[in-house]
């Protein structure tokens, strides 16, 4: 633990004794897996500073107001920002009721100058603002606020590769592990390269050590995270290992049962990586490969650096080498200048590829990106109509893909009781599909087996498909049993 964290902790322990109650902190997370994982680090740092983590907060005083509220923000689309400003505004009331409350805003939104200005001017109840590259310095910022009463807003961020940051992992069996930070692709609609900085990689040995430690503490699955994992090891901070070699090392050297990764850019998904997925039993046969559009002309304006044909070739290569691969993608609708023909190309690509799942987004204009200044924005009615057609098409395909799994036995990592029916269990397949399943007690009895528990990987026979999940039943320990 850092010296500063210890000093804050000692101070907080005294305060908590005086108040005769623990000091608490709440972290609100918006956005992607990267942010969820960053929040695990923020919680780890807050615990080291002497706070108990609580899942939610009250702004009215009807429940208890915590001592710290942290907003870990996202700015990839405008609706995320609007929601965050709304929640941030609501916290003003909580601060009035509890003036010692410390409000922290960090994450992607704060890397935009206009956001920092707006917070300075209109959200005066915010105490600390940090960027994406200096989150690990939270204890310094907290010390400035606690010991000097200072408000620190919008300090310079940096392109760091921090190691040894404490973490409170949300899940014992499934863990996120960052392999690289930042993005250098500059797709013309995307704000990520501006707010997450230049690409930089962690050292392979640090990643291997982290996964080994996770396995020691019971983890069964890791997801390797990066905005663009195919560039792993390429920047000056990398140690020369490429992503295919890294993931093979994780699969072979750590004892982890399952490894998957996110996200891969189609322009540089390497044959070596496809081969690694095909060959290493621990690497899940699953690939998230954002296509964004099925139209070559639109892809060009998006600065994606591949064509429709190249993408389709890639998919057939992947399917040839990994026949049972689960494929998912991201699609964007209403990019500036999108014609009906371009949209038709996207729909036909969905039909041609038949993804298991697609995350569909309506284009959102992001200040500072090249596309924001283009004047041919698509009218909202047209966008909404296209979006509805897109979702309808993909939902049908997703359901059909799931239906094709009926009758099959799939290996499932058990997460625990199903939320909707606690007598059933829930877990995920190698393809990352949710399975809710029954356990046949009579069969277990007869075979002298225990009910599967969270963290077990068991074969489940799929009995019914839904659009976004599967239903199944567990009989025994061997995949052949059902
Ligand atoms: N508007 C809408 N969607 C966006 N994405 C990225 N930038 C934008 C934007 N400006 C989507 C892309 C990306 C996913 C994470 O978010 O589809 O793959
Ligand atoms: Fe954004 Fe493109 Fe980088 Fe993905 S690859 S984070 S869409 S700029």
Quick structural summary:
With 482 residues, this protein is an alpha/beta fold. 37% of the residues lie in helices and 19% in strands. The chain is built from 14 helices and 18 strands.
Descriptive terms for the model:
binds 5'-deoxyadenosine, globular, Rossmann fold, 482 residues, alpha/beta, five-stranded mixed β-barrel, single chain, 37% helix, binds iron/sulfur cluster, five-stranded parallel beta sheet, 3 domains, pyruvate-formate lyase- activating enzyme, OB fold (Dihydrolipoamide Acetyltransferase, E2P), 14 helices
Q: What features would you describe in this structure?
A:
- By secondary structure, the chain is α/β, with parallel strands linked by helices.
- It has 3 domains: 151 residues, Rossmann fold (3-Layer(aba) Sandwich), CATH 3.40.50.12160; 230 residues, pyruvate-formate lyase- activating enzyme (Alpha-Beta Horseshoe), CATH 3.80.30.20; 66 residues, Nucleic acid-binding proteins (OB fold (Dihydrolipoamide Acetyltransferase, E2P)).
- The protein is 37% helix and 19% strand.
- The protein is built from 14 helices and 18 strands.
- The strands form 5 sheets. The chain has a 5-stranded parallel sheet, with helices on both faces. Strands 14-15-16-18-17 form a 5-stranded mixed barrel. A 3-stranded parallel sheet has the order 6-9-10, sandwiched between helices.
- α7 packs parallel to α8, α8 packs parallel to α9 and α12 runs parallel beside α13.
- The longest helix has 24 residues.
- The relative contact order is 0.07.
- The mean pLDDT is 94.
- Bound molecules: 5'-deoxyadenosine and iron/sulfur cluster (SF4).
């Amino acid at each position: 633990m850092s010296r500063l964290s210890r000093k804050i902790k000692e101070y907080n322990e005294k305060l908590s004794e005086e108040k005769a109650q623990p000091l608490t902190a709440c972290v609100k997370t918006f956005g992607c897996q990267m942010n969820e994982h960053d929040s695990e680090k923020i919680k780890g740092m807050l615990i080291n500073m002497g706070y108990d983590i609580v899942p939610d907060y009250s702004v009215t005083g009807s429940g208890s107001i915590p001592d710290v509220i942290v907003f870990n923000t996202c700015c990839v689309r405008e609706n995320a920002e609007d929601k965050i400003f709304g929640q941030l505004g609501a916290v003003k009331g909580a601060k009035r009721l509890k003036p010692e409350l410390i409000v922290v805003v960090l994450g992607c939104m704060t890397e935009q100058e206009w956001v920092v200005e707006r917070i300075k001017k209109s959200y005066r109840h915010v105490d600390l603002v940090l960027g994406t590259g200096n989150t690990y310095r939270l204890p310094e910022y907290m010390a400035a606020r606690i010991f000097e009463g200072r408000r620190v807003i919008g300090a310079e961020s940096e392109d760091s590769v921090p190691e040894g940051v404490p973490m409170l992992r949300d899940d014992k069996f499934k863990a996120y592990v960052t392999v690289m930070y930042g993005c250098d692709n500059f797709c013309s609609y995307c704000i990520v390269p501006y707010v997450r900085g230049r690409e930089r990689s962690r050292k392979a040995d640090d990643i291997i050590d982290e996964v080994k430690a996770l396995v020691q503490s019971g983890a069964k699955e890791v997801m390797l995270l990066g905005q663009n994992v195919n560039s792993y090891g390429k920047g000056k901070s990398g140690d020369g290992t490429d992503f295919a070699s890294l993931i093979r090392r994780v699969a072979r050297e750590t004892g982890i049962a399952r490894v998957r990764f996110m996200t891969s850019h189609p322009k540089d998904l390497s044959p070596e990586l496809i081969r690694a997925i095909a060959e290493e039993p621990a690497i899940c046969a699953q690939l998230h490969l954002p296509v964004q559009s099925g139209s070559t002309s639109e892809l060009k304006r998006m600065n994606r650096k591949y064509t429709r044909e190249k993408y389709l070739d890639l998919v057939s290569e992947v399917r040839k080498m990994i026949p049972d691969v689960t494929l998912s993608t991201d699609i964007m609708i209403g990019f500036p200048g999108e014609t009906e023909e371009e949209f038709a190309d996207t729909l036909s690509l969905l039909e041609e590829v038949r993804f298991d799942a697609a995350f569909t987004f309506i284009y959102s204009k992001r200040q500072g990106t090249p596309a924001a200044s283009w004047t041919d924005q698509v009218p909202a009615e047209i966008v909404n109509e296209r979006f509805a057609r897109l979702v309808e098409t993909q939902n049908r395909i997703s359901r059909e893909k799931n239906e094709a799994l009926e009758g099959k036995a799939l290996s499932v990592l058990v997460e625990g009781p199903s939320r909707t029916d606690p007598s059933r269990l829930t877990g995920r397949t190698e393809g990352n599909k949710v399975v809710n399943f029954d356990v046949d007690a009579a069969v277990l009895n007869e075979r002298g087996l225990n009910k599967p528990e969270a963290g077990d990987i068991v074969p489940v026979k799929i009995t019914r498909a839904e659009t976004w999940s599967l239903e199944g039943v567990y009989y025994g320990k061997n995949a052949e049993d059902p």
